[in-house]
Amino acid sequence: MTNAQQPAHPPQGPPPGPPARPWDRGGAGAPGLTPGSAPRPSALAQAQPGSQAPPLGRAPGSAPLPLRPPLGPVVLDLQDAVRTYPGDPPVEALRGVNLRVRAGELVAIVGPSGSGKSTLLHVLGTLDKPTSGIVRVAGFDIGTLGDQDLSGLRSQHVGFIFQQFYLIEGMSALDNIANGLLYRGVGPAQRRQRAGEALERVDLSHRADHRPSKLSGGERQRVAIARAIVGRPSVVLADEPTGNLDSKTGRVILDLLDELNRRDGTTIVVITHDHQVAARMPRRLEILDGRIVRDSLAVAA
Ligand SMILES: Nc1ncnc2c1ncn2[C@@H]1O[C@H](COP(=O)(O)OP(=O)(O)O)[C@@H](O)[C@H]1O
Ligand SMILES: [Mg+2]
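That is the input. Now the predicted structure with adenosine-5'-diphosphate docked in place:
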């Protein structure tokens, strides 16, 4: 790490001093994102009135879900993000996207195939850099970070869920999840303990020792969700997590993401084909030809 990789000042106040690693939670550039500062269930009582969406796919008469968490600081911030893939002609996958997502939001992204949804998610999650424009994750301007700091930032602040699950076949469900903490300086015993807690969170404790091939598609995606949340990231990004599932199982997965947002305050951005589900999310973005053409909520101003 060099000084050149220190993050620029974030939008929320000055940094308290030089951190050991710039992407550490609570270090410079991440005020308000120290562990435990994200909205938690205890804060739900203060949730804003009117923020409750109808429950997703629940049986009539089942207990109502908690209110959405109150919103926290901006965790994702794109300014004029452009992503052009080289070629003849070049592909303008993102054509100047401005977007702010605050801690505690649940955002659905819809749009036709090829409209730039995955590119947007990859740029938000620092898997890809924009050709021009600014990307801030948890207050850090990723343009100022080198590769090592970027992967550190990612491992601390971003959890990914993909359509293809990407579980390691030679490993149990529990170890797949524990793997999500490999680069977090957590010892093996604690990795397994936290993996067990995450597995419980997705209601799959009884599958801890199963290999991915012994799990159904829906169970695999639940393991992948547990892996994404085990490090308690600032934000979870899901790219068509239901794309390989039948529609009923897909709804169960989207319900689970909804509950994670409501109960744990997890910030989630999810790309989905399911317009019915998206319509019930607190915030919907519509992407067309590399641009956000509709944003149902102006709350993250
Ligand atoms: N690695 C790449 N190289 C070249 N073009 C790409 C690459 N990835 C995506 N594209 C193109 O960028 C556009 C947006 O793609 P993508 O973000 O995957 O859209 P979506 O997820 O909405 O289907 C499409 O035209 C696609 O063909
Ligand atoms: Mg895609």
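The chain is about 25% helix and 20% strand.
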